[in-house]
Write a structure and sequence with these properties.
The complex is a heterodimer of chains A (528) and B (169). Chain A is an alpha+beta fold. Helices cover 39% and strands 17% of the residues of chain A. Chain A has 17 helices and 15 strands. The longest helix of chain A is centred in the middle third of the chain and has 28 residues. With 169 residues, chain B is of the alpha/beta class. Chain B has a single domain, classed as Rossmann fold. Helix content of chain B is 41%, strand content 14%. Chain B is built from 7 helices and 5 strands, in the order αααβαββαβαβα. The radius of gyration of chain B is 17 Å and the shape is globular. The chains are: A alpha+beta (528), B alpha/beta (169). At the A-B interface, α4, α8, α9 and α17 of A face α1, β1, α4 and α5 of B.
């Protein structure tokens, strides 16, 4: 199938709307296609894209001299379209995409807080990423803002955030967090409830904002890969791969096939480990500790396998710019293959138990329901989308190496509840095991890395990877000195957090933990 | 139901049957003795993520899996700092968590101690000090013991908790 079959139709529709599109630099973020347009058309292009059924995939700004170059990503049939415009820092105003894409809400507010871009017609002007570590009217990602900040004082709590409230007889509010009861990341949830039923949930995130986008500036490629590996620790392989892919495309570097295959093995290992942990933890949240213990055991076996083969339980820092840190020996295959077979046998025992255990069914079926329409509107990917009828997988539909030469099966189920999200995870584990078997059997020979070119000056690139959680989009621009001038990793959690707020409607407060676990969005990956 | 019992029976107790876990047993027994001596058999820990990337949380979670089963040594994770003897803090302290961490520490009854887990908590790690990050935990609250690692393995964590008890014991 030739790519971008739909692009000419989109361009024709833009022409009907009198939108002037410049196509001179279309390949600057290949394999994505870039269109450059005037700032005043920013809202129109999103409206036409929404009408055409494209998915909205992210937004980021890049401050260059007295301008901010704003990028928005759209996806259709596995092809990525990046719309680009410029706004002057003296008057940084754009039309909002939120009226057409609810998914744009928080990324626009992130851009408003970090770069000071105002979005007209935005339905929600409240701050998002900014709490009180820097004052209003000051923007950390602007080039004149020092990385150390301007505020030597203690940072007070963000106590006056204007949550939306529901008024009425019997409605009460439950504030939860930022420090939660379990061993999880910090964030604040504000429930409005009547009796046990949740009427509304609003998340307040940004507590683990660590300034990742700012401290990336000035790093060398190896340093950026390390940082990307810590955007969200549970997706360290996927984020490192996406950042490296972006840098390598910027550099025009071809990665040896053996390195790509090893990267894919790492990514599938990460997927399996996280899904194993999640299936156990979801069951635990409805009191089925048997599954928690069994899957906890399988996950631990798996992580120990990682340690013995790759030298790190969570596989951090194995992917580096140009390839992977070291080769996979024949010995490694001898460890991995029996481990995979053992896991397969265990799953044969355990998955049927989970699948038809009546008390689990009672608690998980119809709990945390996300309709197919809402999943589509919010642009969720990964197990969240696949459990709600969104048949998309970057590996299969966009097809990056080495997956472009493989048959990548991807489940697409329709029920949209917690039970379905478990089923997607279970299927993905099976598929990953098969993929790994295939990759290991046909591991290409040759080197596992190439050296980095001396200086990659003023080039940019984009990385697109299917993490265990869903689609990651990573943007890197190198400055004149060959160091990183801009890094933006868009974690799938940007879209699964709003999905959590929707799917919780009508559920009872005590089911929040199981719903939350079934979504398992990353706080760190979102807060940056 | 029979399938469940059958699976439990065939899985057995993984902690005791695996010879490679002898080291954990030895650590664990030391931890248990120290906890019995100083905390009358029970050490309550409140874990606080003050800005980590969540890798440290994954490994702290692992302490509760059947291989390590840290509860059998008398260590348990509690839901409130008010129930805790110790805080186990991860992450560089993000500025947005600075006050929350300080308040959590104040809510923990004395005598208390603080363990900083992971490179970021020990010295700021990959994130250091910036407009958004206070860096090491000790920049915000007093720290008694540090457990380095990115992330520290469950074994490192168990060892670090033991060291913390020894320091305070």
């Amino acid at each position: 199938m030739s790519r971008f079959d739909w692009l000419s139709e989109y361009l024709a529709r833009l022409e009907d709307e009198h939108v002037v599109v410049r196509r001179g630099d279309a390949a600057r973020l290949a394999p994505a296609h870039c269109l450059i347009l005037d700032a005043e058309d920013w809202g129109n292009v999103a409206r036409v894209a929404a009408d055409s059924g494209y998915r909205w995939a992210g937004l980021w700004g890049d401050p260059v001299a007295e301008q901010v170059i704003v990028h928005a990503g759209f996806v259709h049939e596995g092809d990525y379209l990046i719309l680009i415009t410029e706004v002057p820092l003296s008057h940084p105003v754009l039309a909002s995409h939120t009226p057409y894409y609810p998914a744009a809400n928080r990324l626009e507010r992130h851009l408003q807080d970090m770069l000071g871009i105002g979005f007209l017609d935005h339905t929600d002007g409240r701050r998002w990423t900014r709490h009180r570590a820097w004052p209003e009217g000051v923007y950390p990602l602007r080039n004149d803002f020092p990385v150390s900040g301007n505020s030597p004082h203690r940072t007070p709590a963000d106590s006056d955030y204007p949550f939306e409230r529901i008024l009425g007889s019997g409605v009460y509010e439950i504030p939860v967090g930022p420090v939660h009861a379990g061993i999880i990341e910090p964030g604040h949830f504000r429930f409005q409830a009547v009796g046990e039923e949740i009427l509304r949930l609003e998340a307040r995130l940004g507590y683990v904002h660590k300034g990742i986008e700012k401290i990336a500036v000035g790093r060398d490629p190896v340093g950026l890969a390390r940082l990307a590996g810590r955007v969200s620790g549970d997706a360290t392989v996927a984020h490192t791969w996406a950042a490296c892919m972006a840098m390598e495309r910027a550099a025009g570097l071809d990665i040896p096939p053996r390195a790509l295959a090893i990267r894919a093995i790492l990514a599938e290992c990460e997927r399996v480990a996280n899904h194993l942990g999640d299936i156990g933890a979801i069951c635990n949240d409805v009191g089925f500790t048997f599954a928690q213990m069994q899957f906890g055991r399988l996950r631990e076996d798996w992580l120990r396998g990682n340690q013995s083969v790759f030298g790190h339980r969570l596989l951090m820092d194995f992917i580096v710019p140009g390839g992977v840190v070291r080769n996979l020996t024949y010995q490694c295959k001898k460890i991995l293959q029996p481990q995979h077979e053992a896991l397969s046998r265990e799953l044969d025992d355990l998955l049927p138990i989970i699948d038809d255990h009546s008390s689990l069914e009672d608690r998980l079926v119809e709990t945390g329901y996300l309709s197919n329409e809402e999943a589509q509107r919010l642009g969720v990917t990964g197990y969240m989308g696949k459990a709600s009828g969104q048949d998309y997988d970057v590996r299969r539909d966009h097809g990056y190496a080495p997956y472009d030469r493989l048959d990548v099966p991807s489940p697409c189920l329709m029920e949209g509840d917690v039970a379905e999200r478990i089923r997607v995870r279970a299927e993905e584990i099976r598929h990953s095991l098969k993929l790994m078997e295939h990759l290991m059997r046909r591991l290409p020979s040759g080197p596992v890395s190439v050296s980095w070119p001396e200086v990659v000056s003023k080039r940019e690139g984009i990385g697109l990877v299917e993490s265990w959680r869903g689609e990651i989009l990573s943007f890197v621009r190198f400055g004149e000195d060959g160091r990183v001038a801009r890094f933006f990793p868009r974690d799938p959690s940007w879209f699964s957090w709003p999905a959590l707020e929707r799917l919780i409607h009508g559920n009872i407060v005590p089911d929040f933990p199981v719903c939350n676990k079934s979504v398992n969005a990353s706080y760190s990956g979102h807060d940056l | 139901m029979l399938r469940i019992l059958n699976k439990i029976w065939h899985t057995g107790t993984v902690t005791e049957r695996r010879p490679r876990d002898a080291e954990i047993e030895r650590f664990g027994k030391q931890v248990k003795r120290a906890i019995d001596r100083r905390f009358r058999g029970s050490l309550a820990i409140r874990q606080v993520d003050a800005g980590s990337c969540n890798a440290c949380e994954l490994e702290i979670h692992a302490l509760n899996n059947p291989y390590y089963d840290i509860e059998r040594f008398g260590v348990h994770f509690v839901a409130s700092p008010r129930h805790a003897d110790a805080l186990l803090v991860t992450g560089p302290v993000s500025r947005h968590m600075e006050t929350a961490l300080r308040r959590t520490w104040m809510a923990t009854p004395s005598p208390k101690f603080v363990i900083a887990a992971g490179n970021c908590a020990c010295d700021g790690g990959e994130f250091g000090v910036s407009y958004a990050s206070c860096g090491a935990v000790e920049n915000v609250i007093p720290v008694d013991v540090k457990i380095p690692g990115c992330p520290p393995t469950p074994r490192d964590l168990l060892w670090g908790i033991l060291a913390a008890i020894d320091v305070k014991g």
